[in-house]
Amino acid sequence: MSDGALSVRWLGRVAFADALALQEKLVAEKREDHLLGDELLLLEHEPVYTIGRTPDQSSLRDVAHLPHPLFPINRGGQATYHGPGQLIGYPIIDLRQCGQDLHRYLRWLEALLIETLDEVGIAATTRPALTGVWVENRKIASIGVGVRHWITMHGFALNVCGDLTPFDQIVPCGIANVTMTSIERETGTDRSVADVASRVEKIAPRRLNDLSGERTRLAC
């Protein structure tokens, strides 16, 4: 599936280790060949916890008693949970081609998720100094990115449906007393991860084109 400069792939349910290996492979290939197009991988994971590059592990609470495997990975941010019912997005984007502005890239991810949520009837927003997407004071999507040689990996996790109780075992993204929510909770309707992925698939290429144009001007 592709549109313009961005190819979007729906991978279904993928083990975290396998998805990480695929990201690393794609990043390495793009580093060697700058003509390769950008990609967005959309998928679900089996239950896992991840934490970014930080000496502060307090967001994990009791590591020895986590109910699911833990993966320390090369992204920013504190601990989060991934599992069934959550749409995971891993953009593999070469920021060397569009300004090398990581903060603007994070805002682009937030805008992509806010537009997607608007399509399913949810008015989502950002919050000052807190990366991610919110519905009032409830967090519906988390963002944590890694960059190698200005090529992005990792990305976003949008709660669509299913069990949110695994978040109770950690301090999600290091934010004390945060309430996690989902599309299902906010709308009271059943919606599949694949359905939401199809909406992201339509929005993301246009969003990337807008971002690329803006970044080109910034770089000049």
What does this protein structure show overall?
- It is a single chain.
- This protein has helices at residues 16-32, 102-119, 183-187, 193-219; strands spanning 2-3, 6-14, 38-45, 48-51, 70-72, 80-82, 86-92, 125-127, 130-135, 138-148, 151-159, 179-180.
- By secondary structure, the protein is α+β, with helices and mostly antiparallel strands.
- It has a single domain (2-219), classed as BirA Bifunctional Protein, domain 2 (2-Layer Sandwich).
- Helix 2 (102-119) packs antiparallel against helix 4 (193-219).
- 37% of the residues are buried.
- The model is unreliable at 214-220 (pLDDT under 50).
Order of helices and strands: EEHEEEEEHEEEEEHH
User: What would CATH call the class?
Assistant: Alpha Beta
CATH topology: BirA Bifunctional Protein, domain 2
Approximate shape: globular
The name of the CATH architecture is 2-Layer Sandwich
- The helix fraction, in percent, is 25-40%
The largest pleated sheet is described as: 9 strands, mixed
SS element count, helices: 4
Query: Kindly state the mean pLDDT as a whole number?
Result: 90
Strand proportion:
25-35%
Q: CATH H level: which superfamily?
A: Bira Bifunctional Protein, Domain 2
- First-to-last CA distance: 31 Å
Rg, rounded, reads 16 Å
What's the β-strand tally? Answer: 12
Q: Would you tell me the structural class of the helices and strands? A: alpha+beta
